[in-house]
Amino acid sequence: LRRNGVQSGRAGRIELTLRQPFVLDGEFFDAGPDGVTVAAGAPVVFVAA
Fold first, then answer.
1. Domain boundaries along the sequence of the chain
2. Are 40 and 12 in contact (CB under 8 A)?
3. pTM value?
């Protein structure tokens, strides 16, 4: 889907090479020499009463 020059997509895994610390949920983390890998896990099911 293209709109305003932006293309959307999805991936099961993304590898990031970061040279600076990054912030996740308000906390600072060091990426380390191997960078950061973000991967999809199993779906989470929420039950509402």
1. 12-39
2. yes
3. 0.56
Structure tokens at 33: 């020499």
In terms of Cα–Cα distance, which of 25, 24, 48, 49 is closest to 36? 24
Q: What is the DSSP letter of 33?
A: T
Which whole-number Å values give the CA distances from 9 to 15, 34, 45, in the listed order? 15, 25, 23
- The CA angle 43-15-21, to the nearest 5 degrees, is 105
Per-residue pLDDT reduced to its tens digit, 1-49 = 566 788 878 899 999 999 999 999 999 999 999 999 999 999 999 998 8
